[in-house]
Every structure is written in C-alpha cells, then in structure tokens.
Amino acid sequence: MLFGAAGVSAAAFLTSCTSNDDGDDDNSSQQQQANVSDDKPGKPVTIGFAGPEADHGWLNAINDNARSRAKTYEDVTLDITEGSNDTATQIGQVDSLINKKVDVLVILPADGKAMTQAGLKAMRAGIPVVNLDRIFDDPQAYRCWIGGDNYGMGLNAGRFIGEQLKGKKNAKVVELAGLDNLELTQQRTAGFDDALKNYPNVEKVARQAAEFTVESGQRKMSDLLQAVPEFDAIWNHDDDQGVGVKRAIDQSGRDEFFMVGGAGSKAVMDSIKADDSVIKATVLYPPTMAASAIDLARALGQQKGVSGMAEFEIPASITLYSAVVSKENIDQYLPTGFN
User: Fold this and answer.
1) At CA 63, angle to CA 79 and CA 279, rounded to 5?
2) For the chain, what percent of residues have pLDDT higher than 70?
3) What are the Periplasmic binding protein domain coordinates in residue numbering (predicted)?
4) Looking at the DSSP assignment, which residues form a beta bridge with residue 175?
5) With left for phi above 0 and alpha for psi between -120 and 50, is residue 101 left, alpha or beta?
6) pLDDT at 25
7) Chain-centroid distance, C-alpha 291
8) What domains sit in the chain, N to C, each tagged with a CATH number?
C-alpha cells in the first residue's frame, strides 16, 4: 500500500499532465521526488512505540511487525514500551517517551477514548503521533491514523459466505462474534448483516458473542452447536478464539458446514492450505499495519511524503483492506500469518 509501483506511475503521470513543457516537467518531477519517503538512509529518527499488553496473538504480531520494520532502516531507533492494558500505566509510558523527546510517537491505545489526552499532550509537545488502529476521540490527538476496517471485515466475510451458498435454497448461517461491548465487534456484525442482505436465500439463524479467548470460543461454539442442529456456514470473528471453536467442532463430529475465520493467524492459514478441516477462509485484520505505522512515523520524522503518492505530506488517515484468504490465494498471504 505504501510503496506500490502503480502509485509511482500515477504520480509520474500527474506530473507530466500538469507541466507546460519538458523543462517544467523535469523540475516538477524532481521537486516531488525530493519530498517523497524512500528506503535510502536519511535524517536519524527515534520512534517511541506504546501499545497494549501482548496477551493475544494479533497484539503480539503487532509488536513483532513494528520491531522487524524498524530494523530494516539504518536511520530508525525504536524505543518500545513493555505494553499494558491498564490505561494509567500506558499513559505513564507515553509520558516517559515524551520526556525522552522522541521524534515521533506510535500509539496503539488499550482504550482509545481514555488515551486521547496522552495523544493530545504529545502533539502539543511538538511530537507527531501515529495513532494505530484503536482511534483517539479527538483528531487533534494524532497526525495520522492507520488501522483496520472492522465493518469491511464483516462485509467481506458475508460476501464470501453468500457467494459460496448462492446456489443453495434456504441456506443457514451462524455467527460467533467477539466481545459485544466493543464497537469493533458491533461494526463487524453490521458489515456481515449488510452483506447477507444481498443473498435472500441465506438466513442468519443464530449468533453468540465470545470474548476473543480460546476458552470462550470453545464454550460458545458448543452452545451454538447444541442450539442449531443444522447450518451451512459460520463466521467466527477472531482466529485466536477460533482455536477453541475448532476444538468444539472436532468434539461434536459435525462437518456439514464450512467456517470463515477472522484476523489471519498462521494456524488458520495452515489449515486452509492443507484443506483438512471445515475452515475454508479467513478475513484479514492485518497486523502488518504496525510495520506501515513505522514507515509513516519515519516519513514524519524526516518530513517526507509517502512513496508512490504525489502529495508532499502523508495522509491524515489510512484504512487497510480486509482481504479474504482462501485456498485460491493462500500462498500469497501465508507469510503474513501470525502465531
């Protein structure tokens, strides 16, 4: 997304279209290229990174992606905190990074609303903030937001299931959501329901909310299997809780349905690749967003734009696409799977 060749071509095309002669074209192109972020070493940048506790496979992958990306740049020093789900602790960690006078901050808040003041404090101190995924309440609390598309995640899960079942009369699907008090869960369900409206032959007959844990996934899936004697597909919002979901399914001995997961864990991708279970697809919520956040932070620290885009500044927000990974494209996405 950040370094697409198509974007470079588009920028070059725009430059040629807005110039009056060959000389102007060369000058304009040079000016744009001088303003674009690239992989060549530049001004040293210290990036502070504050995220929640890595108590979930996806969150651990977020930290891994940030560390790995930072190591690819000779001019980047990453100062990463231990991570905490306690808001007061995370605020203290951000304060410490501000006091160290890091050049840029990347913050994935444990609670976006509760951490908004921390983002505002950093911005007021002249430290640009890249807000990662869980968004602050106030747009003044960050320079750039980058994150996943929860509504799109549900939408694409629903479309995939609908397409697989469009030739079946009276098809039945069930949904195993995450924590219902989280807005992201509500958005995923809304997207899923909206997608199914385009498939009148498909009916959602049951829904359970789990807690994004293996134990809750197993327990809630067992409840669904007992409550619904027959269905054709299930969408499980989260691949971590999907470990428990699969246990419950294996214990039941049922296989008349297929399952679509969520997030993109390596275990689920391996199962899709092997084609040895009811798991046939997963909808990505890519932890690679943390690597892209490092790219954006580096560009901010060096006062550059984004490679492949004509603008002199990085965007105010970037929403990632929730791709569906199935046996048709598994080899492309397998390296991005997280443990």
Assistant:
1) 175
2) 88
3) 47-302
4) 207, 235
5) left
6) 46
7) 11
8) 5-30 (no CATH), 45-147+290-304 (3.40.50.2300), 150-285+325-336 (3.40.50.2300)
